[in-house]
Amino acid sequence: MHLPPSSLRGKKGVRRVGGQSSHLASVRGSKQTMGEQTPAGRDPFASDVSSMAAVLGDTGADLSARISAARQLGAVAGAQRQSGIANTCTNALRDQLELCDANDIDLNTVLVGVLVKLKAAVAAVAISAAYHAHRVDESVAGDWEQVRYKLGIGSRHPASWRRSAAAKASRAAPASPAAKVRAAPSQKHGQADKARRKRANKSRRRNRKKKRH
């Protein structure tokens, strides 16, 4: 039985179109799956940042895990400075520091260090509150005056740094001739005292001998 050419073309067209439509369906399905993982217009770091922020704020989590999350948020913010995700990371760090009274001091100290490294002046109020509450280890993070200067909101070079620099300079500087001259009389006085003690001892011995005779 012979079929008309139009009929043959129709059947071929159905097979061709059918195969193509099944391929397109599979592509659409893969695109939808990808879309579920990374929606259009959403930053690919967003899910990771949300997870890190959740760990940071989890008071039941291990302290080392929370500190690690804070540092990771800082790393993402530093690498993505030109994107909105940097603000999300900075805000998460700042919001956690605002709970400084409930936080461990080590966590507060890390939060301050990360925010200072990011030069996050928007967190200055939270950082200041943590310092005034004595909830930051100044031996690690520096004092509030130093932190203000690093954030770019301090008007002058910290006095503590000036004192430290002056102390280092005085220790490194060689002794001046005047100082050596001042030291010499003290040595002479010591020798004179020693000589006087010797003479006094000799005198006592002579007196004892005279009393015996």
- Strand and helix order: HHHHHHHHHH
Number of helices: 10
Number of strands: 0
Low-confidence stretches: 5-38
Shape: rod-shaped
**Overall pLDDT:** 75
Structural class: mainly alpha
Radius of gyration over all CA atoms, rounded: 39 Å
Count of separate structural domains: 2
**Biggest sheet overview:** none
Q: Kindly estimate the percentage of residues that lie in beta strands according to DSSP.
A: under 5%
Helix percent band:
over 70%
End-to-end span in angstroms? 165 Å
Task: Note down, in words, how this protein is organized.
- The protein is built from 10 helices and no strands.
- The chain is an all-alpha fold and 213 residues long.
- It has 2 domains: 46-163; 174-213.
- Helix 4 (84-97) packs antiparallel against helix 5.
- The longest helix has 36 residues, at 177-212.
- It is rod-shaped and about 110 Å long.
Short note summarizing the structure:
The chain is an all-alpha fold.
Strand and helix map with partners:
Blueprint: H1 5-37, H2 46-57, H3 63-79, H4 84-97, H5 105-117, H6 124-132, H7 138-141, H8 144-151, H9 159-172, H10 177-212
Helix pairs in contact: 2-3, 2-4, 3-4, 3-5, 4-5
